[in-house]
Write a structure and sequence with these properties.
Blueprint: E1 7-10, H1 14-25, E2 34-37, H2 41-51, E3 54-56, H3 59-65, E4 68-71, H4 75-85, E5 94-97, H5 104-111, E6 116-121, E7 131-137, H6 143-154, E8 157-161, H7 164-176, H8 178-195, H9 200-221, H10 225-232, H11 238-248, H12 251-283
Parallel strand pairs: 1-2, 1-4, 2-3, 4-5, 5-6, 7-8
Antiparallel strand pairs: 6-7
The protein binds NADP nicotinamide-adenine-dinucleotide phosphate (NAP).
């Protein structure tokens, strides 16, 4: 469904390149139909060489040439690039923002048009085509737009459609920020292995592979994690002794608190962004 679409990226850093790579290498989009802009010319040249896409330093050219425009700059730059490209946007185009913490209302307020907007929150695992991505639609986005957005982000992982206002912050706290929690868990397990006498290299490999294997087993078996835990924890055995210690340390409560804190912070940042966008809009008339 994307093959004949003209897709533009404004900002082609880490996440922009991960998406270009996913789209081109999966065959979901044709490289000649993808156009990317960025301020870094060396970065653009590298992306052009690797994926055969069209590049430019002109954001407005991308907005004009594309049917789907993905804004992939840092959130602090989003207001500026939206303003710069706004004259080239109209209702024939689907506009997607991946800027963390910027609500659809803030984006819409900067554009003053009944545009088809979609907000997406991928995560860093997009680099290995395993992002857990949330997609939320603005008032004027159609069912077809949501399908298109899903097709784009399915090329770098798996997608879920959510109601932005109530759930996007929760999503950010769980799977947007979640890779950081898992990296710490892997690092801590490796420390534990080292404490027990394993080499750092072996300990890190074993803890990483254990997390990967556990995730794969959960996905493929479709069993509840509690059921799988029960299968590992035999009566009077080693795993239940470890689980008892995890419960004493409050691992479950700590993770719930972490997701809650990150979701709260996402909301705070979003509220600040909305305020900034509104003030800038007032200043610019
Ligand atoms: N990375 C993640 O794990 C992740 C996860 C979820 C969501 N996101 C969201 O994805 C977006 C991109 O993040 P990222 O990690 O890919 O950031 P990034 O690597 O910094 O990429 C953004 C790119 O935009 C360029 N840029 C700056 N000003 C520009 C302008 N006026 N016009 C065009 N391009 C411009 C930057 O160039 P310079 O570097 O030279 O400024 C950079 O190459 C952010 O909004 C972030 O919230 C990221």
């Amino acid at each position: 469904m994307l093959l004949e679409k003209k897709i533009g990226f404004i900002g082609c850093g880490n996440m922009g390149e991960a998406l270009v790579s996913g789209l081109v290498l999966s065959g979901a989009a044709k490289p000649e139909n993808i156009i990317c802009s960025d301020i870094a010319e060396d970065l653009l040249e590298a992306v052009k060489k690797k994926y055969g896409v069209v590049v430019t330093t002109d954001n407005v050219e991308v907005a004009r040439a594309s049917e789907i425009i993905i804004y992939a700059t840092k959130p602090q730059i989003l207001g500026k690039v939206l303003k710069e490209t706004a004259p080239a946007l109209d209702t024939s185009k689907l506009i997607i923002s991946i800027a963390a913490g910027v609500p659809l209302a803030a984006i819409a307020s900067g554009l003053h048009k009944e545009l088809r907007l979609i907000r997406v929150m991928p995560n860093i695992c997009a680099f290995v085509k395993e992002s857990a991505t949330a997609i939320a639609a603005g008032d004027y986005a159609t069912k077809e737009d949501i399908k298109l957005a899903r097709a784009i982000f399915d090329s770098v992982g798996k997608t879920v459609f959510i109601q932005e206002n109530v759930l996007m912050d929760a999503f950010t706290g769980l799977s947007g920020s979640g890779p950081a929690y898992i990296f710490i868990i892997v690092d801590a397990l490796a420390d534990a292995g080292v404490k027990m006498g394993l080499s750092r290299k072996d300990a890190l490999f074993l803890s990483t592979q254990t997390v990967l294997g556990a995730a794969k087993l959960l996905m493929e078996s479709k069993e509840h994690p509690g059921q799988l835990k029960d299968r590992v924890a035999s009566p009077g055995g080693t795993a239940i002794a470890g689980i008892h210690t995890l419960e004493q340390g409050g691992l479950r409560t700590t993770l719930i608190n972490a997701v809650e804190a990150a979701a709260r912070r996402s909301k705070e940042l979003g509220d600040m962004m909305v305020k900034d966008f509104m003030e800038n809009n007032k200043k610019n008339g």
